[in-house]
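Cross-check.
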Amino acid sequence: MPCDFLFIQAYDNVVLAKVTKERLLDPSSITALGEALTQILDRYPRISLVLDLADVGYMSSAVLGKLIATHKQVKALKGRMCLAGTRPVLLPLFKVTNLDKVFEMYPEAEFAMRQYRSKPL
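Predicted model, tokenized:
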């Protein structure tokens, strides 16, 4: 299933993936997102992935599962991953699940990109 709400930009050693859907609640969108993230990892091994969530206002716990799975895959490939632009309304979801301690989180994608580009793997 194609994921028409995930836009990918590859830079020197960093991949920016921007989620442009406000509500990540339905199973078909969540499945599409998971498949698209897996395809990114297949295409860019040893990735530095910045996942921009600035447009996301609502997400189900199933999305957290996809993010955790992607994070584990990135680590297994000796890469790194961060979340950027997470809206304040979603931060409690990450805090209550302690995922704010698992993921590097940046206030905006541009800042995360600068950090990742200045510190290569």
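Strands lie at 6-10, 15-19, 23-24, 48-52, 58-59, 80-84, 104-106. The two ends are 32 Å apart (CA to CA). Passed to J.P. for a second look.
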